[in-house]
Specification:
The protein is of the alpha+beta class and 394 residues long. The chain has 10 helices and 8 strands. 47% of the residues lie in helices and 14% in strands. Helix 1 packs across helix 3, helix 7 runs antiparallel to helix 8 and helix 8 runs antiparallel to helix 9. It comes from Paenibacillus filicis.
C-alpha cells in the first residue's frame, strides 16, 4: 500500500512522478487563465489544446490502442493537481478520462465501438462524454424515463430530444446518449457522431464550475447506424455487464479535493505573510487562525486518505468492486462536504478580502459548491450506507 500524507501522495515509480509534475506545470498555466474563463463563462479551449499536445487525453486508453492505461490511483493524483489550477478544466477532463477508464475495465461496449473511440482519442485527440440528464425529469439516477426518443429508420435510428448538463459540449464530436425506444417499453444507449441535427443551446450560466461548457445538447432526427447501438434494454432490465462499483466516479472527489487544497494553500500563505499594523506580527501567530488552519488540515488529510486508499483498493481488488460501491461513493460525499468546510474556513482566515472577484478563494468557494450536484448525490450515498448496515445491500 502506498503511504499517504497530507502534503503529497507518495508515488511508486518515476512514471507517476512525471505525471504529477506535468499536472503541476499545466495547473500553473491554467490558474492564470481561470479568472477570465470564469468571468466570461467561456470554455477553456486553450487548456484542452495544451492537454492534447501533452498527450493527456489518452491517459486512460488501453495500451492495445496506443494509450497509457493509467490506474485509477494515478488518475485521481493527476486530476487533483490539475484542479489546483482550474476546477472546471479538471472536472471536464475527468468525465472524458473517467468514462474511458470505466469502459476499459467493464468492456460493456461492443468491441468495435470501443476500439473506434480509443483510436479517435489517441490519433486525433478527440474527447468523449456520455449524456443522460434531461430538463424536467430529475436525476437519471432516480429511474426517470428519458424523453429523448429513438425511432427505427432504414439502417439505424433517428434520435430526437434534449440533454442537459452536457459537459464538454462545445469541444466534443463523439458522445453517447440514452433514449427511449419509440413505441416500445425499452431504453437504448447510442454512440453519436456530431453531424447535421446535432445542436447546442447555451444554457450554462451558473454560480460555479462556469467553464465546463455544460450546455444543453439538442438532437433533431440525428441518424445513428445500427452498428453504433451500444445496447437496448427492455423495461425493468439492465444490460448484463461487469460491476465496477462506479469507482471511476472517484475522479470527482479528486477534483474537489484539488480545489480544497488550493484554498488551504492560499489561506496558509496569507496567514504567514499578512501582518496588520495593529497586530505587529503575522496573523498566523494567533490561536484563532491556527485553530482554523488545524481544522482545515484535519479535514483535508482525512478526505485524501480515504480517497487514495479506496482508489488503490479499486485498482488492486477488482473482485470486490461491486461490494465496495457504498465506500467508493462515500469518498465523494466526504471529499465534497470537506471541501465546502475547508473553503469556508479559508475565507474566514483571509477575511473580507476573500470576497473580491480578484481573489482566487472567491472562485474556489463557488466552484466547490457545484460538487453537491455531481453524482452520487448525498442522499443516495447515505441510503446505500444504511442499506449496507441493515444487510439489504448487494
Amino acid at each position: 500500500m502506498t503511504s499517504i500524507r497530507s502534503e503529497e501522495i507518495l508515488v511508486d515509480n518515476n512514471k507517476e512522478a512525471e505525471l504529477i509534475s506535468l499536472a503541476k506545470r499545466l495547473a500553473v498555466r491554467f490558474a492564470e487563465r481561470a479568472p477570465q474563463h470564469d468571468r466570461e463563462g467561456s470554455f477553456p479551449f486553450d487548456n484542452f489544446e495544451d492537454l492534447k499536445q501533452a498527450g493527456c487525453l489518452k491517459l486512460t486508453v488501453p495500451k492495445e490502442f496506443g494509450g497509457d492505461e493509467i490506474s485509477l490511483f494515478s488518475l485521481v493524483q493527476f486530476l487533483e493537481n490539475i484542479a489546483r489550477g482550474d476546477g472546471s478544466t479538471a472536472l471536464s477532463l475527468g468525465w472524458h478520462l473517467g468514462l474511458i477508464l470505466q469502459l476499459r475495465t467493464t468492456r460493456r461496449w461492443p468491441e468495435h465501438l470501443f476500439a473506434r473511440l480509443c483510436k479517435l482519442t489517441v490519433e486525433q485527440g478527440e474527447l468523449y462524454n456520455g449524456y443522460i440528464s434531461e430538463p424536467g425529469i430529475g436525476s437519471p439516477g432516480r429511474g426517470a424515463k428519458p424523453r429523448t426518443t429513438a425511432v427505427r429508420s432504414e439502417g439505424g435510428w433517428l434520435l430526437s430530444g434534449r440533454k442537459s448538463f452536457s459537459t464538454l459540449l462545445p469541444n466534443i464530436n463523439h458522445f453517447s446518449v440514452i433514449a427511449s425506444i419509440d413505441g416500445e417499453a425499452a431504453t437504448g444507449e447510442f454512440y453519436v457522431d456530431r453531424q447535421a441535427g446535432v445542436g447546442m443551446k447555451e444554457t450554462w450560466d451558473t454560480l460555479g464550475m462556469r467553464s465546463t461548457g455544460s450546455h444543453d445538447l439538442l438532437l433533431d432526427r440525428v441518424f445513428v447506424p445500427e452498428a453504433s447501438v451500444v445496447s437496448i434494454s427492455p423495461k425493468g432490465q439492465q444490460q448484463q455487464q461487469p460491476q465496477d462499483g462506479h469507482g471511476f466516479l472517484m475522479f470527482i472527489s479528486a477534483c474537489y479535493l484539488g480545489l480544497a487544497t488550493a484554498a488551504r494553500d492560499y489561506a496558509v500563505e496569507f496567514a504567514r505573510t499578512y501582518q496588520p499594523d495593529s497586530l505587529g506580527m503575522p496573523i498566523g501567530e494567533l490561536p484563532l487562525i491556527q485553530q482554523h488552519l488545524g481544522l482545515i488540515e484535519a479535514e483535508l488529510t482525512t478526505a485524501r486518505i480515504l480517497l487514495y486508499s479506496m482508489a488503490r483498493r479499486w485498482d488492486e481488488e477488482p473482485g470486490e468492486r461491486a461490494a465496495l460501491k457504498p465506500e467508493f461513493a462515500l469518498t465523494k460525499y466526504t471529499a465534497v462536504n470537506s471541501a465546502i468546510s475547508i473553503s469556508d474556513r479559508a475565507m474566514r482566515v483571509c477575511g473580507g478580502s476573500s470576497l473580491s472577484r480578484s481573489n482566487p478563494l472567491e472562485r474556489i468557494y463557488r466552484d466547490i459548491r457545484a460538487g453537491l450536484f455531481n453524482p452520487p448525490l448525498d442522499d443516495l450515498v447515505i441510503k446505500d450506507l444504511a442499506f449496507k448496515a441493515l444487510g439489504k445491500y448487494s
